[in-house]
Amino acid sequence: MTPSALRARNLSKQYGTGEGRFDALTGIDLDIGEGEAVAIVGKSGSGKSTLMHILALLDTPSSGEVRVVEQDAATLKGRALNTLRNATFGFVFQQFFLNPHASVLENVSLPLKIGRVGSRERRKRAMETLELVELSDKADSKAMNLSGGQKQRVVIARALVGDPRIIFADEPTGNLDSATGAVIEKLLLDLNRERGITLVIVTHDADLAARADRRIYLKDGRLVDALDEHATSRGRHL
Amino acid sequence: MKAVDILTTAIGNSFRSRLRTTLTVLAIFIGAVTLTTTNALGTGVNDYIDTQITSIGAPDVMNVSKPTTPVDEADGPEPYDPDAGSEVSTNAGPPGTTVLALTDDDIERIRGVEGITEADPLVAVRPDFIQWQENGRYQLSVSEFSAGVTLDLAAGSGFDRTSAELEIVLPESYVDTLGFASDEAAIGETVEIGVTDAVGDQRLIEATLIGIQNPTLVGSGASTNAPLTTALFDAQQTGLPQESVSQYASATARFDPDATEEEIQAIKDSLADAGYAGTTVADQIGTFQSVVDGIILVLNAFAIIALVAAGFGIINTLLMSVQERTREIGLMKAMGMSGGRIFALFSTEAVFIGFLGSALGAGVAIAVGSAVSQVLADGFLSGLAGLQILTFAPASIASVFALVMGIAFLASTLPASRAARQSPIDSLRYE
C-alpha cells in the first residue's frame, strides 16, 4: 500500500450554534495515498471547498482527526504549521489570486520568498518552473497583461515552484474556456504522473473529475458513493 | 520572508497606489516641516543666548542683594524696624522692585559666607557724557554687570584684573560716533568721561579705551574696570554724607570658578540663611532660556498635533490597503507566511511612508529655513550679530525622524494587527 498523504477520520465541521447551526461536513473518513490524483466532486454548497480547506490546514475541523504526511494536524502550531504549508502544499485557485501589478516572475517566486530562499536562487527556480509551463518568455510581463489560460499556468507554476508534495486545486478550470481548460487539465495530470505529486482537485466539472484516479463524491456534507443524474450540471457523463 | 524581503516588498507596496501614498506623505510632510522648523528656531535662539551667557561670562560671579520681606497687604502696614536699613530700587526684577540697601557691614558679612572668596559693593555709576578729542559729547551708561565679566570683543583685549589703570570697554556703536577711524584704531586711545558730583560740579575723568565690544542681547552699556568704577563713583559721591555713601543696591561676590552646580546652590543657601539672595549670571539669562523653551514647546505641540493628524491618515491609508489586499494576505498565509511577518510587512510600509514624509519635510525645511535665516541675519536681525534664527542641529533632525517614524509605527499597529489576525480562509473567500 502506498504511504498516506492525507487522512481524515470522522471529520465534522459546523458553523454557528443552536437554531442557526449548519453542518458543513459530517463524519468524513478519507484516505489519499501519495501520488494519487483525487477529485472531490459535488455541487456548490456540498461542502467540497470546506473539505479541501480543512485538508490543506487552512481551516480547522469542529471534530475529527486530520493527518498530513503522517503528522497529526492538531499538534501542528505556529512555525511548524507555516513550514509545512510552505514546503508541502501548492495551491491553484479558480480566481488565480495573482498580484496584477507584479511581474510573472515575482508572482511565481512568492512562495520561495515566504520560505526565505535567497533572491538569486528564487529567480533560478522560478525561471525553471516557468519553462515547465511554457511561459518563460512572459517572465517580466505584468500578471494583469496575461490571458486567462496564461494566468492559470502562472498559478500552477507558483504552486509548483516550492516543489510541493501535494497540490490543491480549487476549480482550476472554472474560469477558463474548454480548450484552455483542457490544457490546464493535462498540465496538472502530467505533473501528477511524471513527478508523483499528490493532486487534490475540487471541481464540479465531470470531464476533469473523470480523468482523476479516483473521485470522492460529496452531498450535503456527507460522502456518497455516486451522485444521481441531476446532481451536477454534467452528471450524465459519470 | 527575510527582513530584507519584507523591506523591499513593503516599499514596493507603498508605491502601488501612488496617489494615496503621496497624500499621506504630504500630511506627514507638513508636520515634519513644522517640527523641524520650530526645533531649529529653538536651537537658534538658545544657541544665541548661550553665546550671550559666555560673552557676559562671569561663571564665578554672583550678584547678592538683600530682598525685602514680602508685605502681606491684608495684614496692614508692617511695624517700623529701625535696624532694617533703607530700601533702594533695583533693576533686577520687574520695574518698581526694591531691595534693602546693603551697608559696609553687610558686605563684610557676605565676605564671611562659606565659599565666597571676594565681595564688593556693586555701585551704580551715572556718568554724564563721554568724549574723545573735542569730537562732541555723547551720553554714556555703564553696565552694572561689569565686574568679572568676560566680554565678547570685536577688538582689543579684556580687563586685566590686576591692572590699576583706569580702563573702559565701549560698545561698537561708539566707534563711529566718537570719531574713531576703526575698531582697531580706537584701542589705546584716552577718552574723557564727565560725571556730576553731589553738589553739582562736573568733573572729567580720563580712561584708556582697551576694547570694543560686539552688540549683545543684555545691555548696550560700556564696561569699566574696578579702578575706573571706583574713581567714577567717588567723583559722583563727593559731598554726600558718609552713611548715604555706603549704601548699595547689591554686591558682587566671587566664588571658585570650578564650583559645581551643587556647590553654587550651597553658597546660595548659605546666603539665604544670612538674609541675602544670590543670583548668578546664568540664573538671570536662564530665565530668558526658559521663556524661549516654553514658546518652542508650544510651537512643537502644534507640530505634533499636525503629526498625530497625519498618523490618522496613515491608519486610514493602511486600513484601505489591508482591505484591498485581503486576498493577497490570505494567499501569503496559505503559503505559510506567519502573522508576525504580515504585521511586519504592513508596519514597515507605514514606517517607510513616515520616513518619506520626514525626509522630504526635513529636507525642505533645511533648504528653505537656511535661506530665510541667512536673509534675516543679513537683514533686519543684523543688529544681533551672530544670531542665526534657524539653526538645524543634526540631533534634533534625527529626533524628528525618530518621532515621525515612531508615530507612523504606532498608527500602523491597528491595521497591521488586523491583517496579521486574518484567517487565510476568510481572506481567500473575500470578494
SSE diagram, text form:
The complex is a heterodimer of chains A (238) and B (431).
Chain A: E1 4-15, E2 22-33, E3 37-41, H1 48-55, E4 63-68, E5 71-72, H2 78-88, E6 89-93, H3 104-114, H4 119-132, H5 148-160, E7 166-170, H6 178-195, E8 198-203, H7 206-210, E9 214-219, E10 222-224
Parallel strand pairs in A: 3-8, 3-9, 6-7, 7-8
Antiparallel strand pairs in A: 1-2, 1-4, 4-5, 9-10
Helix pairs in contact in A: 3-4, 3-5, 4-5, 5-6
Chain B: H1 3-14, H2 18-56, E1 61-67, E2 87-89, E3 98-100, H3 104-112, E4 116-122, E5 129-131, E6 137-138, E7 153-156, E8 167-171, H4 173-178, H5 183-186, E9 190-196, E10 202-213, E11 223-224, H6 226-237, H7 242-245, E12 250-255, H8 261-273, E13 277-280, H9 281-324, H10 326-334, H11 339-378, H12 394-421, H13 424-429
Parallel strand pairs in B: 8-10
Antiparallel strand pairs in B: 1-3, 1-12, 1-13, 2-3, 4-12, 5-6, 5-9, 7-10, 8-11, 9-10
Structure overview:
- The complex is a heterodimer of chains A (238) and B (431).
- With 238 residues, chain A is α/β, with parallel strands linked by helices.
- Chain A contains 7 helices and 10 strands.
- In chain A, the strands form 2 sheets. Chain A has a 6-stranded mixed β-sheet, with helices on both faces. A 4-stranded antiparallel β-sheet of chain A has the order 2-1-4-5, covered by helices on one side.
- In chain A, helix 3 runs parallel beside helix 5, helix 4 crosses helix 5 and helix 5 runs parallel beside helix 6.
- Chain B has 431 residues and is of the alpha+beta class.
- Chain B contains 13 helices and 13 strands.
- In chain B, the strands form 2 sheets. In chain B, strands 5, 6, 7, 8, 9, 10 and 11 form a 7-stranded mixed β-sheet that branches.
- The two termini of chain B are 26 Å apart.
- The model of chain B has no long low-confidence stretch (mean pLDDT 82).
- Chains A and B meet through helix 2, strand 6 and helix 3 of A and helix 1, helix 10 and helix 13 of B.
